[in-house]
Write a structure and sequence with these properties.
Layout: H1 2-12, H2 16-60, H3 66-83, H4 87-97, H5 107-133, H6 136-144, H7 149-179, H8 191-202, H9 205-236
Domain ABC transmembrane type-1: 34-224
Protein name: Cysteine ABC transporter permease
GO cellular component, one term: ATP-binding cassette (ABC) transporter complex
């Protein structure tokens, strides 16, 4: 109990020096958030979502050609590999492994590629499940007014599937914001990398990392509010 009291007292104790550290470290963290963390998460999510939609469409298509079947097999292998290995390992393979075969990438592109591939695999299952959840009657109704398969898919099925996908995809984006901290391990100067540098220089690990955690929480809290409003708006149109 004494140790706990001492810990709380040390953590809550705020002198002028620690206050200055909080203030001076906040703006570099905020800058890193704006310049790296948010762009990294956004770019990766957009690219990953495009990959996810492509794979989901491929796997739910009714074509029975040999090429289509081969592509489906490769898509399943891709999804299985990405979902079955840690994101950190994927980042390290791209950043440290590819140079062995002559492919050298800068830290930021490395992170974008790794996050995009990871999001694409996980989100593809979300989008695929959403497509399969649309009643067959929607297909039949589209065919009855003269649409072919492609037209029915684009005009009727996809819009409804994307509405269903909003909650899990929003959660994926929020998770991506937090996962960008892994990019610090390949020298991307995002929020957590800056926090590491400040903590290492000041030895105020609890204080600095708690400040970084607070910034992450604020971002995710704002995104969660936006997600809820988007869901409410979409639910009124269903």
């Amino acid at each position: 109990m004494t140790l706990l009291n001492n810990f709380l007292a040390d953590f809550l104790f705020m002198n002028e020096e620690r206050a200055d550290l909080l203030i001076s470290s906040f703006f570099p963290m905020l800058e890193a958030t704006i310049l790296y963390t948010i762009p990294l998460a956004t770019i990766s999510f957009v690219i990953g979502l495009m990959i996810a939609i492509g794979i989901a469409v491929l796997r739910t298509g009714d074509s029975q050609t040999t090429i289509h079947r081969i592509m489906v097999i490769f898509a399943k292998i891709y999804v299985s590999l990405i979902r079955g290995t840690p994101l950190l390992v994927q980042i390290f393979i791209i950043f440290y492994g590819l140079p062995e075969i002559g492919i050298v990438l800068d830290p930021f592109p490395t992170a974008v590629i790794a996050f995009s591939l990871n999001i694409g695999a996980y989100a593809s299952e979300t989008v695929r499940a959403a497509i399969l959840s649309i009643p067959k009657g929607q297909w039949e109704a589209s065919y009855s007014i003269g649409m072919n398969y492609t037209q029915a898919f684009i005009r009727t099925i996809i819009p409804q599937a994307m509405r269903v996908s909003v909650p899990p995809l929003s959660n994926t984006f929020i998770s991506t914001i937090k996962d960008t901290s892994l990019a610090s391990l390949v020298l991307v100067t995002e929020l957590f990398r800056v926090a590491q540098n400040v903590a290492a220089a000041s030895y105020e690990f609890i204080l600095v990392y708690s400040e970084a955690a607070l910034i992450y929480w604020i971002i995710c809290f704002v995104l969660a509010i936006g997600q809820q409003r988007l869901e409410n708006r979409l639910s009124r149109h269903l």
